[in-house]
Amino acid sequence: MKIVVCCKAVPGAVTDVEVAPGGKALQFQSQFQAMNECDEYALEEACALKRAYGGEITALAMGPITTQDILYLALAKGADQALRIDVRVQDPQVASTVLAAALGKMEFDLVLTGTQSRDTLASFVGVAAAARLGLPFAFAVTEVEKDGEQSIKVRKELGGGRFADIRLGLPALLCVQTGIQPLNFVPPGRMLRARAQPIRSLSLTELGLTEEEIVPRGYRYQSVSPPERVGRVRFLEGATPEIAAALLARIRAAL
Questions:
Q1: DSSP string of 42-96?
Q2: 3-class secondary-structure state, position 178
Q3: For the chain, which residues make up each domain, given as ranges?
């Protein structure tokens, strides 16, 4: 089984967070790039499927050369090869366009993504990429099982404690839910060996895309601001009957 895992690099330890001038973005200090947590669960599920059914894993990420840190982590965890698309993308629509273009040039049976990234929380990219490629897909997947050579069985969350068991033909794309597999620690020695492996990169031109095709469309930050304080805590003092009467009055006033 050939599996592609889409990974996103997100800021690691973040400090000095504040609203940027203009009020439409945050600015902060970040010491390193980390793999998006949801995508790391997708990678762990890919490794579990590889152990169960054999095959190979390709880790795929978008971003500048610093993004390779998460691809080295993917290689250390069990990916066989890694590919970086040399483009900075934040808009979910654009990200799905670029991923679909890259996946269209690859051979795979299964594509795994996380359900969302912790920086945009769009929950959109995986599903949109599947739609662009015409792939069957499932969202919030909690279990995956191979069902013959050309299909898989998956269990997906429906919300409210309900689940659905479905069968998908291959190739397919799954947006994996967090917790599907435990996250494994990577020993330093394995990480050092992973850094010695080559990582291939592709440009927009090699994907057949132009700069005009990755201009953000429709997805805009209107404003960014800290939470507004709508009330303050007030301590009630006095004897117990007085506190009870004051509290009851406040509850009645709020109804």
A1: HHHHHHHHHHHH--EEEEEEESSGGGHHHHHHHHHHT-SEEEEE------HHHHH
A2: coil
A3: 2-214
CA distance 191 to 244: 61
* Residues whose CB is less than 8 angstroms from the CB of residue 229 and which lie 6 or more positions away in sequence, other chains included: none
Q: What is the CATH number of domain 2-214?
A: 3.40.50.620
Furthest CA-CA distance within the chain: 77
CA count, 13 A, side-chain hemisphere, 243: 7
2 with 108: CB under 8 angstroms?
A: yes
Radius of gyration over every alpha carbon of the chain, rounded to an integer in angstroms = 23
Percent helix, percent strand, percent coil in the chain, to nearest 5: 30, 30, 40
Q: Which residues pair with 154 in a beta bridge?
A: 144, 166
What integer pLDDT is reported at residue 218 of this predicted model? 67
Q: Which amino acid is at 110?
A: L
Rounded Cα distance, 17 and 1, in Å:
43
Q: Judge contact between 84 and 76, C-beta under 8 A.
A: no
Res. 86: pLDDT tops 80:
yes
pLDDT tens, position by position, 152-174: 999 999 988 899 999 999 999 99
Q: Which residues contact 8 (CB under 8 A, 6 or more apart)?
A: 35, 36, 39, 61, 62, 70, 114, 117
Q: Say which amino acid occupies 43.
A: L
First and final C-alpha spacing in the chain:
59
Asked if residue 59 has pLDDT above 90, the reply is yes
